[in-house]
Amino acid sequence: MNCRSEVLEVTVEARQVEEAMLALLHTILLHRSTGKFHYKKEGTYSIGTVGTLDIDCDFIDFTFVRVSSEELDRVIRKAVSEFKDALSNSGSDGMGQISLEFYQKKKSRWPFSDECIPWEVWSIKVNVVNLANEQERQICREKVGEKLGEKVINVVEVINRHEYLPKMPTQSEVDNVFDTSLKDVQPYLYKITFQITDSLGTSVSTTMRRLIKDTLAL
Amino acid sequence: MAHFDTEYQRLEASYSDSPPGEENLLMHVPEGAKSQWHHIENLDLFFQRISFFKWFRKNGFTCMLLGEIFELVQLLFVVGFTVFLANCVDYDILFANKFVNHTDSSKVTLPDAFLPVDVCSARIRDNAFVIFVLIISGVFWLHRLVKFIYNVCCYWEIRSFYINALKMTMSELPYATWQEVQARIVEIQKEHQICIHKKELTELDIYHRILRFKNYMVAMVNKSLLPVRFRPPVLGECVFFTRGLKYNFELIFFWGPGSLFENEWSLKPEYKRGGNRLELADRLASRILWIGIANLLLCPVILVWQILYAFFSYTEVIKREPGSLGARCWSLYGRCYLRHFNELDHELMSRLSKGYKAASKYMNCFLSPLLTVVAKNVAFFAGSLLAVLIALTIYDEDVLAVEHVLSSITLLGVCITVCRSFIPDKNMVFCPEQLLRVILAHIHYMPDHWQGNAHRYETRDQFSQLFQYKAVFILEELISPVVTPIILIFSLRRKSLEIIDFFRNFTVEVVGVGDTCSFAQMDIRQHGHPAWMSEGKTEASIYQQAEDGKTELSLMHFAITNPQWQPPQETTHFIISLWSSPRSLIANILGPSTLTSVHFGRDSSLTNHAAAGINDGASALRSLSPVSSSLHLRGSLSAAHRAAGHTSAMSKGMAGSGTDARTVSSGSSAWEGQLTSLVLSEYASTEMSIHALYMHELHKQQSRGELSRHTWHRQDSDESSDSVPDEVRSEPNPHSRHFPRSHTFPTTVASPSEGASSQSSTQRRFSGSGTSGGKAVRSARVPMGGWAEDGQAAPRHHDPLPEESSEDEMPPHIHKVNAVRCVVGMAKLLCARVLKINLHFCPPILTLGYITKPAV
């Protein structure tokens, strides 16, 4: 609740799913990553550089910019391909949602595990369509390219707003805010989850959690 | 080589290309997280805990800890002792039916009566029921233990929030009001950003978060959506609303599996769209069915749990004061019915507690004379027997040794106590009407038809639904596990479509808060009721209106309790129009009598009679407030308290008491000493009482002559159309508008012939100043499946109402100019009303209330 949520919706063909998702996720992460922090003794830090890379899509008339970090790319690709597989295996009407959640950790005392508190969630809703002939595919190719362009501008607009971002951490707290596992780039802590079709109702686990919490509370 | 003369030249030493070194990199200073309180995940829960901590743990952390630990031990003891008594005691020895063979003495000692350990444990093991009870109570105890540990951890955190972030020590917490705590939370939001959507929090945001679901419940009770009224064949109309039922409602609507809410702060998107409401209703109905069945299956377990719970919670109380079962308490339904939107638990409880004395007095007025005669005689006979027995015992205590003498003495004593409760106090005066007014001053809501009918048994019976016997309350809780599934399956399930419609129509998304009940916005324009002073300001259809003036009274209440709150523009007008009236009244009435009489003496329409009676009126008002002695301070205080905003009206009105030297000096100690906000909040509650009385009075005047509709007899809306608000007009009005008579929402559209029947125009008038514009807006907002308005075709007139007070129709600036006139008028009105309650035997003054109008 106490987090912003942005929803992007795209309608693509099955083979475009992967590239479209990569384009959007990478665009968001490009703006939510910094260079590595190098802390100095008197509590200041300097920020390393971040390279960017233009990526051309094969199935869409579209080029996007991503952080030139192979590691990050690998992680994202893995998540997206899992999503794609799940989507193609689901066999239903081809609706799915992938969400990129930025969070910060909060240290808790002993009985509780660390809390992960999201502060921004990007949900990308994907609608997969089947096209009959090559001509339609061509049109779709262009149209999806245009749409993605709009989405990218949309993303940049949202990111440009002056809104809450976690404060820049001191050295000891840097792991609570940034993902420091990568060598060349340092994105905010993020989590990618996906969900195929709108499953009805809250999942059993959340309900159980809520039941337990409710019996405990007050 | 040709020398090219160009303008381009090499820049000399404009910058030096020093090798990249550490010292030239841009250096940043990390801000770090100053505290752990920024960006809290679940603000709803967090605020709830803060308010809970404030109100229930105010005696400090250690007290809470000790209290809880002792409670756990007590529980263990009660269960263990009960089992021991049932299984390990040889009662034959105790009752001396069996003799023990002692060698040394003939005395029976307590250990003789205990069974040996092995016999005892064997008895326990053989008894399946005892095992069952032991297991259930064991689970119960473990649950309590885990809950206790969890709570301690949570509240430790909240405590450190109070200390570190809010900068309040635990010792000063009990003396701070909620408003102070709230102001500090608003303050720290600017610094820590605990809510990330907004830069600043408002009071209303905090209330919305704490009371999100409670507001929904209040609104549903207000719109009679929840099936809590029943007509069982023998008992007549009754209300059944228990904690178990409430828990189930919340489970279904708010957080259970597949509930309407996705998470704690947002409704599922499909419920916000009207498209497939029928399908959603079907789904909800089947879910209710399943939960009902689950309740049915778990019934035995819950029943045993309930009995244990009741036993552990109430036996001690009953032992300590047996009369407490005959005492009354506010029922759960009453708490929902009487609650304002955005009213915290402690605020509700404090005002209900203030009304408790008057309410029980009112209920005691209605003792059946027949019962009294019987009780008197029974008490006489029992008393004489008791007297003889006691006298004999005093003469020779061997009488006690005779079998059953001690028990008969005890029984007779109980009998007399019971009988005495049926004998009315000799010194009590039967004046239900006045009592009901005093009650109203605290509870703020009551159905219209109670006024003037306070002496009737029907009114009393209905009031007893709000204010029930403690014993009845416990009994209802006990039978609740059995009744709840039946209600769910047979009653709630039929309402699934209405529920779906309700949640769709009355949910708004507020930035930084999430989905809240739109009633809780307290927007007069959207949910005002024309009969409750929002005439001309409201655009709500009947479906959208909150009943019983809930929106208006809630708004007043919230504005009074949270003076810092900045209401939206149109709401401000409403509040100012109210504040500028009775507030100054208080000053006038409670000020020195000489001054008041001068005030009114100037006015020719009031007789000397009235001026003389003002003191009585003032005393009646004073009785409303527990801090009556300092009520003189009230006027001047509130002026200082809320100086901003309505100064012009205020200063004129306050002239009576504010500048009076005596008043100020009488309260000087308070000024100098501890003029804490506690006192202020006490005043605020008094002020709210007066506003409530005033608004009810005005409402009554407005709807006089009509058989106004009331919610009390509003029946289940899907039953038939005879539960229609019957608004019979007393006088013909050419501009009568059509209103839907049918309650059969959501599917049936009222037929034109039905709608065309005579309806009140005065009560249900919309202020369509621009007919087309107003209509367009409204028709856009007419909820699908709501109360269909067949009056769409009919033009909406704005017909001036003869008895309408002028203030409502005037723009605010005229308002200010007319403030003094209004003040005098209102003062008259309230005085007349007060006189009416107080001087029942004074018919000429009694009539004053009927002739006076707000505007002179």
Description:
The complex is a heterodimer of chains A (218) and B (856). Helices cover 37% and strands 29% of the residues of chain A. Chain A is globular and about 65 Å long. Chain A starts with a strand and ends with a helix. Chain A has five helices and ten strands; from the N terminus they run βαβββββαββααββα. In chain B, strand 3 and strand 4 (266-267) form a beta hairpin. Chain B is globular. The chains are: A alpha+beta (218), B mainly alpha (856). At the A-B interface, strand 4, strand 8 and helix 5 of A face helix 1 and helix 6 of B.
Give keywords.
heterodimer, A: about 220 residues, alpha+beta, 4-stranded mixed sheet, 5 helices, about 35% helix, globular, B: about 850 residues, mainly alpha, endoplasmic reticulum (chain B), lipid transport (chain B), golgi apparatus (chain B), autophagy (chain B)
Write the layout of secondary structure elements.
The complex is a heterodimer of chains A (218) and B (856).
Chain A: E1 4-13, H1 17-31, E2 33-34, E3 37-39, E4 45-47, E5 52-56, E6 63-67, H2 70-90, E7 95-106, E8 115-129, H3 134-160, H4 174-177, E9 186-187, E10 190-196, H5 204-216
Chain B: H1 43-56, H2 61-87, H3 91-94, H4 110-113, H5 117-126, H6 128-165, H7 178-192, H8 203-210, H9 212-222, E1 229-230, E2 238-239, H10 243-255, E3 261-263, E4 266-267, H11 269-272, H12 277-320, E5 328-330, H13 332-338, H14 345-364, H15 369-395, H16 405-422, H17 432-443, H18 457-466, E6 467-469, H19 470-492, H20 496-505, E7 507-510, E8 514-517, H21 524-527, H22 530-534, H23 550-561, H24 569-579, H25 582-590, H26 593-601, H27 608-622, H28 631-641, H29 647-654, H30 661-666, H31 668-672, H32 677-702, H33 752-755, H34 771-781, H35 812-817, H36 819-838, H37 843-846, H38 848-851
Antiparallel strand pairs in B: 1-2, 3-4, 5-6, 7-8
Helix pairs in contact in B: 1-6, 2-6, 6-12, 8-9, 10-19, 12-19, 12-20, 14-17, 15-16, 17-32, 23-32, 25-28, 25-29, 25-36, 26-27, 27-36
Shape of chain A: globular
Alpha-carbon distance between the two ends of chain A: 21 Å
Task: Supply the number of structural domains of chain A.
Answer: 1
| Total strand segments of chain B | 8
Greatest contact pair?
A-B, 42 and 47 residues
What's the main sheet of chain A like?
Answer: 4 strands, mixed
- Uncertain parts of chain B: 14-20, 586-675, 707-829, 831-856
Q: Calculate the mean pLDDT score of chain B and round it.
A: 70
Q: Using only CA atoms, what is the Rg of chain A? A: 19 Å
Strand order of the largest sheet of chain A: 1-8-7-10
Structural class of the secondary elements of chain B? mainly alpha
SS strand fraction of chain B: under 5%
Note the quaternary state here.
heterodimer
Order of helices and strands of chain A: EHEEEEEHEEHHEEH
Mean of residue pLDDT values of chain A:
84
How helical, in percent, are the residues of chain B? Answer: 55-70%
Label the structural class of chain A.
alpha+beta
Strand order of the largest sheet of chain B: 1-2
Can you give the helix content of chain A as a percent range?
25-40%
InterPro entries (chain A): ATG101
GO biological process, one term (chain A): autophagosome assembly
Family (chain A): Belongs to the ATG101 family.
Protein name (chain A): Autophagy-related protein 101
